[in-house]
Design a protein that fits this description.
384 residues; alpha/beta; Rossmann fold; 8 strands; 47% helix
């Protein structure tokens, strides 16, 4: 196991009826900017719950944040935050809203020119507005980490950044928010959380049995509980287990002391940037290709995953790996998520554009930094 440091200061408030607690978590005289997406929180009643809870605060609103949030939209919110002298941000929505809020928090106090440099140049964040979150969609894990992914619409770029300065001070997780979600969002959330675990787990062994078992417990829970939520949206216990699994998948705990991959996410971001494919669906497409391409490097962990998660105990190493990859594909497909690029009308022309972008950037990915633009092309072409 590798050396590591771990600290997670985010306070989690979990359970039904907890949204009303938000007023107790924000400084009494704070000027709040509430951020949200396309307005679904108004249909579900979450909006009114928040407004009622914060009736004694000076509250401003900024809606319209997109799935795969746009940098341009974030900068409009930064203008509002500066104009109104906002001193607290409250994200009400899923991971996209919270990712955008993290950039708004950093961008409002950024002193080094264009805040896009936070993403494009990995410029260090030295200060940010404090953030709280009310999570309405289990998926990204953004509610308990300092990471965010933002799309610049003008250049079709989707890039990530991370900083402890933008970790939420608190996150309220009410599983009843899951009750009103459409199938597509639930399925995407399950796949997203699953892929988050796999990026940290499916690498190579470093004698880290605690992290492995933590990761495997999340995978098994997603496999068992996710379909229950899809079948019966009002199953509170299943919704609670799904929501907590998605949070645990990316709060840093299973990442400590182990190598990480993130190739699938890096490639998937480009598919979203160029084609607008749902983030989780790009992961379901790309991950089997990465598993197959790196089957030798990842052999020990793929076999461990196949045995412990899917109960595959017979066959040669290659037979176990093949069946394990197929079981992973079958799981994504069982959620209603298609796993081939041809299902999304992605052409070889798009693959060439992604390869060229990675070539220009000198991109090297994977736990061994051995996946370049050529291997990226092979991975994608194998998923046509």
């Amino acid at each position: 196991m590798y050396n590591f440091k771990y600290k997670n200061p985010t306070k989690i408030i979990f359970g039904k009826g907890t949204i009303s607690n938000v007023a107790n978590e924000i400084p009494a005289k704070a000027k709040i900017l509430m951020t949200y997406g396309g307005g679904s929180i108004k249909k579900t009643g979450v909006y009114n719950q928040v407004k009622n809870a914060l009736k004694n605060f000076e509250l401003f609103e900024f809606g319209g944040i997109e799935p795969n949030p746009h940098y341009e939209t974030c900068m409009k919110a930064v203008e509002v935050a500066k104009k109104e002298k906002i001193d607290f941000l409250l994200s009400v929505g899923g991971g996209s809203v919270l990712d955008a809020t993290k950039l708004i928090a950093a961008g409002t106090l950024y002193k080094n020119g264009d805040p896009w440099k936070i993403l494009s140049e990995k410029d260090r964040i030295t200060d940010a507005l404090p953030i709280g979150a009310i999570l309405t969609l289990p998926a990204t894990g953004s509610e308990m980490n300092g990471n965010a992914v933002i799309t610049k619409n003008a250049t079709q770029e989707k890039l990530a950044f991370g900083s402890p300065k933008v970790m939420p001070q608190f996150s309220i997780l009410d599983p009843e928010c899951v009750f009103t979600l459409p199938d597509r969002q639930v399925a995407n959330g399950i796949a997203d959380a699953f892929a988050h675990v796999m990026e940290q787990y499916l690498t190579f062994p470093v004698n880290s049995p605690i992290q492995d078992r933590f990761a495997e417990s999340i995978l098994i829970t997603l496999i068992e509980e996710g379909p229950k939520v899809l079948a019966n949206r009002s199953d509170y216990e299943a919704a609670a287990n799904l929501m907590w699994s998605a949070t645990m998948a990316l709060n840093g705990l299973i990442a400590v002391g182990v190598p990480q991959d993130w190739t699938t996410h890096d490639i998937g971001h480009e598919l979203t940037a160029f084609c607008g494919i749902d983030h989780a669906r790009t992961l379901a497409v790309v991950f089997p290709g990465v598993m197959n391409m790196k089957r030798d490097n990842k052999k020990d962990k793929i076999i461990q995953y196949g045995k412990r998660i899917w109960g595959i105990n017979k066959g040669t190493d290659n037979e176990i790996i093949d069946l394990t990859i197929q079981k992973t594909i079958d799981f994504f497909e069982s959620l209603g998520i298609r796993t081939k690029l041809s299902d999304y009308d992605v052409s070889e022309h798009i693959i060439e554009r992604i390869m060229n972008r990675f070539k220009e950037r000198g991109t090297k990915m994977g736990e061994n930094t051995d996946i370049d633009y050529i291997e990226t092309g092979a991975i994608l072409k194998s998923r046509l």
